[in-house]
Model the fold of this input.
Amino acid sequence: MIGNLNHVAIAVPDLEKATATYRDVLGAEVSEPLALPEHGVTVVFVKLPNTKIELLHPLGANSPIAPFLERNAGGGMHHVCYEVEDILAARDKLKAGGARVLGDGEPKIGAHGKPVLFLHPKDFFGTLVELEQV
Ligand code: CO
Done:
């Protein structure tokens, strides 16, 4: 069902520092910061040959990643995103198997303008899983 790894998201307390580390220490190509108020984050995309890293920093008062950074003050891996061809079919199959879909269970438009869903980390070995329809 799942296809390519679309991205790994890392929540960071200092976006400028994290961007500089990926650019200057790791030698990766990084984007300009992109504010996504509807998602409560500012994101920097790190382009790798086979996938992306997304550096996430809270934006606004009710950022969904603020509680994560409270628990992980130095930052940490927030989620992995796998591509699927049909997000509704994937959701229905996962739900039938007992996996929990976060929120109201309906896909939302994600950071790349495509439908996404999140799956409960307790059902996937402590890792928040995002599915993105491609
Ligand atoms: Co993501």
In short: Residues 39 and 63 are 7 Å apart (CA to CA). The pocket of cobalt (II) ion is lined by residues 7, 9, 54, 79, 81, 130 (CB under 6 Å). The chain has one domain: 5-133. The chain has a mean pLDDT of 96.
